[in-house]
Amino acid sequence: MKLAFITPYPPSQVTLNEYGYHLTRSFLGKNGIEKIYILTNNLEDNADYSRYATEGLEIIPCWNFDSWFTVLNLRKKLKELQPDAVILNLQFMTFGAGKIPAALGLLTPWMCKLLGIPSVTILHNITETVNLETIGMANSKLKGKLFLWIGEQLTKFILKSDLVGVTISQYVTILKDKYKAKNVILLPHGNFELPERNYVPEDSKEINLMAFGKFGTYKKAEVMIDAMEILQQKYPHLKFTSTVAGTDNPNVKGYIDGLKSKYAHLPNVEYTGYIPEEKVSQIFWDSSFVIFPYTTTTGSSGILHQAGSYGRACILPKIDDLERVVEEEGYGGAYFETDNAESLANAVSYLVENPEERKKIEDQNYKAAKGLPMSELAQWYLSHIHQLVAN
């Protein structure tokens, strides 16, 4: 069987690149797999993909982020390759920061249907549960309603996929009730490879608060940095650091430069810039707590799973979607009121002053990260793909 994956892939900085990396690699060595193609976006220098080349995977850059022609480029490549099935790793901004190219790219599942190629889409978010204003997609109620309507139409095209997996049970309910979809299932996020356990040092006088990802829309680092200042005053015998690990969200270019200017007076804020795959583990191991400075969520959090696989305690905002994911998938953490630095500082204080509770959460998260390895998830995909191909 020849499989094609449509997904961002490192060192591309497009959202879901890391998930695409772990997902595709989990299919290596599976029975009956003859060829794996990764149809990913072009870089300034596509030779950079060689850093993540793996025997058995053929990386094929064939579409451009923010291009209006992505679906046509993918159609041409799929007709050339003639795979037996396609797996799409998608969220609503996979194909562009601009609204039109992002929307046009999401016609790809429908295009696969027209080509007669069986397809499975893993959809990481749905418009019904996302605050469009918060993520930079709409700055007024009228625009919000318009984009919600557009999102509904795009969802219908995504549902043309033979099978659509979503990572949160609430999404299954919404898609079945609202769209009368019969091809939607709850698809676990799956856990990345578990590295060797690396514990937070006991009695350390240095505490590193780390937030990871793309910043500026629903993920803003100010609340973490402000909380760090509160904590430093509260515990003068300890040294607190805030690590902003990642880059600007494409919709808010210049956000991190703004942070650097705003907090230039603080020597204990670190900005990593883009983190290549091979350095991700060190960023998590260097952290004492993984902070989620979210104002809303856009689906299941890959960072939550990473925090678990590295055995770190999470400091989480009280947001329904996120709390539901944490509970359903067996993770744990300390909670704070959204966008409230004092509340975040209190959550960190609780775990600083109660190290046994911190260790309990670390163990809980590491155990949850063992729950469903990507290799088992790949087997689940294959069993469904075999049925689709047979039909």
TrEMBL record:
Q: Key word Amino-acid biosynthesis present in the record?
A: no
One GO BP on record is: lipopolysaccharide biosynthetic process
| Molecular function via GO | glycosyltransferase activity
Say which domain of life the source belongs to: Bacteria
Q: Cross-referenced SUPFAM superfamilies, in alphabetical order?
A: UDP-Glycosyltransferase/glycogen phosphorylase
Sorted keywords for this record are: Transferase
Pfam families, alphabetized: Glyco_trans_1_4
User: What is the protein named?
Assistant: Glycosyltransferase involved in cell wall bisynthesis
Q: What organism does the UniProt record list as the source? A: Algoriphagus halophilus
